[in-house]
Design goal:
Layout: H1 7-18, H2 27-42, H3 51-62, E1 71-75, E2 81-85, H4 99-112, H5 122-134, H6 159-167, E3 172-177, E4 183-196, E5 199-206, E6 211-216, E7 220-225, E8 258-264, H7 269-274, E9 282-285, E10 290-295, H8 299-308, E11 312-316, H9 318-333
Antiparallel strand pairs: 1-2, 3-4, 3-7, 4-5, 5-6, 8-10, 8-11, 9-10
């Protein structure tokens, strides 16, 4: 099989050359076209494709079990051999996107390109490159949009292989370091990945205890494929699983959803209105700058509320008001 590094990009470039009826590409020309594509995307920080890799790519494209591409070598008037498709109009890729769709795709590529270079996004390079050469789009190197990201966050290098394991339904033996400092190995059937507050979390079934676990990537020490069978997810709809909470910590079933009423200062109120704490947020009384949210209380709720202090007052429920007051008093009484 062909060398997989940047393989999709090379197939796009070769496909464009083979279906071009106005140019005759020799073997050397094909090498130069691929190098030009690498140069355009990576700015010189790449390794030139070898003749061996190119020959393997052509064999792979011609293989009846892959693209079954009708690639032939023909002799030109000057005696050199060039490569082309014998069937007019053939392409291993078919684009049916409208001009409007292409405009949207180009904007998407621009945004995806912002994540290039992070430890966890080697896979993204090939996705972007493939899209650019498939639809003849180019993403600007100028940074116009910025996203919150932390390239130094521990565990990002595990994001891509964990996504692969989740998609491939591969059970994993995961060594996990808890926030209490203990390390333990779990056999996990991975189901879902979620980002919250700059961190990534893996949700999966603990095959031994038959319970759903939430694992922060920065606390995963290591993992490997497990001999345990994968247990399919038949109970949880992750599209709605987080609807009634803030963050990623889903409380026990006996923790019910409550309406939490909050009053904000003049300065903070417009900010919270424009950036809701939760999708359930409602304006109770604009005159008194009072809002409400309907959530199941969890640790992220408390973290969010404390982030607003001293600009927030908890009006209801009474137990939460007292709890916040007690935590504040405990903090003031500490001598560190």
């Amino acid at each position: 099989m062909a060398n997989t590094k940047n393989a999709q990009l090379r197939y796009r470039v070769l496909d464009k050359c083979f279906k071009d009826k106005y140019h005759q590409y020799t073997f050397q020309d094909l090498l130069e076209e691929i190098d030009a594509a690498y140069e355009s995307l990576y700015g010189g920080s790449y390794t030139s494709v070898s003749e061996r890799t190119l020959r393997a790519d052509i064999r792979f494209m011609k293989d009846p079990d892959t693209f079954c591409a009708p690639i032939v070598a023909r002799q030109s008037a000057d005696g050199n051999y060039y490569y082309t498709y014998s069937a007019s109009g053939f392409s291993i890729f078919k684009s049916e996107l409208s001009e409007k769709d292409l405009d949207k795709l180009e904007s998407t590529i621009e945004m995806l390109g912002r994540y290039r270079g992070l430890p966890s996004t080697v896979w993204l390079e090939e996705v972007i490159s493939s899209l650019q050469y498939r639809f003849d789009l180019k993403a600007s190197r100028q940074t116009l949009v910025s996203f919150e990201q932390n390239a130094e966050l521990k565990g990002l290098e595990r994001l891509s292989p964990l996504i692969d394991a989740t998609m491939n339904r591969q059970t994993l033996d995961i060594i996990y370091h808890s926030y209490r400092g203990h390390e333990k190995t779990y056999a996990i059937s991975p189901y879902y990945m979620k980002q919250y507050n700059g961190r990534w979390f893996l949700f999966g079934l603990d095959n031994t205890m038959q319970r759903l676990m939430n694992m922060a990537l920065d606390r995963i020490v290591g993992f490997k494929p497990s001999a345990e069978p994968f247990v399919p997810n038949t109970d949880i709809d992750f599209d709605t699983y987080f609807d009634d909470i803030i963050g990623v910590t889903v409380p026990d079933a006996d923790v019910k959803k409550e309406t939490i009423t909050l009053r904000f200062t003049d300065n903070r109120y417009p900010y919270v209105v424009s950036k809701p704490i939760h999708p359930s947020q409602q304006i109770v009384d604009p005159e008194s700058r009072t809002l409400s949210i309907s959530v199941r209380p969890n640790r992220e709720l408390f973290t969010q509320l404390f982030s607003f202090i001293p600009d927030v007052e908890v009006i209801a429920p009474e137990w939460l008001r007292k709890d916040i007051a007690e935590r504040l008093k405990t903090a003031l009484d500490k001598h560190i």
